[in-house]
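Objective 1b: paired records.
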Amino acid sequence: MDVFQTMRFFMAVAQSGSFTAAAQLLDTTTTNVSKAVSSLETRLQTRLINRTTRRLALTEAGTRYLQRCEKILDEVREAEQEAGTAQTNPAGRLKIHAMSAIGNHYVIDAIAQYRERHPSVLFDLTLTNRLPDLLEEGYDLSIVLARDLPDSGFVAQRLGITYSILCASPAYLHNRGMPDTPGSLATHDCLRIVNTVMPVQHWVFEGPEGVETVDTPESPFHVNTADAMTVAITRGMGIGIQPVASAAAGLKTGALVRVLPAYHFEELNLYAIYPSRKFVDAKIKTWVEFLKNCIPGLLAADEKIAQSSIKA
């Protein structure tokens, strides 16, 4: 019998005044109660209860031990209740990861909206362009772009599909002209995003003739995030890859122009990944459901802006 159980048996005897009454309260036998209390006294090497054939009385040590037991078991009950409400009441801190462009353009806004509904949930957000080790790095959830996911045993909820496009500034295109085929990029300054998501030396397009691969020329500029690339493109440094999420605002204002609008890069799935399907914490469950309701609409709105370049 574990320590907490023997404490409960001892408290039942002390509070009811007899082994028989304690046994009835605990739905067990008087013998089991007597053995539990005797075992507890043996382990403590202290007499807790003086017994006679007619009555019981706590010793001084027993009185002090009872007070301690009541406090300890109250705290255990509170801890169990608090842990139990984690399944139903969103509260506490969520440590989440997101890829940079998705995080900057979708996730931060989603967090702000989510916290209007659940202000007791706090967020630690990390933005990196890689697939993290959720368990090793202690993340509750990761939001990533990938064609496919490795078999990790984690739960993956697909939030939507997106892709990247080529963009340039109006000034660059005025000076250098608009390429009309992927092959004509060889005469342009092609800026490269260098990370685990974006292609580097070979750009693989999906267009009217199917899949087409081109080797990009030596690049005058490398950077590791899409939003940094947006700045470089806007400043007229060349033609660069932009996730639709990063390009949408610039396309809408005219600061960016879509290059080769009939072509785009490989479609990628947007996933929310978390470690377990069983006993999912309420804050994780409600956050994932919120993303599933929120993100598709944001993706569709930016997709519409990107597609308008084709019609223009």
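Objective 1b, second protein:
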Amino acid sequence: MTALPAQARPAAKPAIERIRRLRPVPSAAVGTRARPRLAYAVVALASIGAIAIAQLLLSIAMTQGAYEMDEQLLRQAELRREEAKLTDDLDRLESPQYLAMNAEALGMVPNSDPAFLRLSDGAVIGDPRAADGAAAAAAALVPNALIDGVPPVTEQAAGQTASGGKGRSAAPAEGAPSSPPGLSGGLPTPATH
């Protein structure tokens, strides 16, 4: 046999005690439990309301910006049409046929024998003669259908542009000479301010 004493085993517990049971909490502990505070609920609802209002205001601002952008795009298209119309009017008024028609209306006549001055040595090239008005330029070699019905400068009412609209008056500004300076032994120089 052994010299050691035999170890005693504890007695087995009944199976019912091994299973833990739920026990009801005493009624005094139920009343002491912490309740949610009313301030937390108010802060949560106020923050949700502030977020909703901010989102609504942002949506209104973006919609207003879209309307303004659409209005500006329409204005830009209108200005582009106006620019195209004015460019066409300018091209019409810059045409050689319109310039020749206005020159004739002002009493100018074409010179069939032009002479040129070479500035490097002052030599006159060609036979300088005064224009006699015999050569009429009334019939343009290349007609311009765009200027049909546009009156020459002499037939327009005061303050009216060539396209028929109202413009600035053609009266000279104060202090400006009413007629171009005459030749006095040389080429005229432009008047400066």
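The two ends are 141 Å apart (CA to CA). DSSP finds four helices and two strands in the chain.
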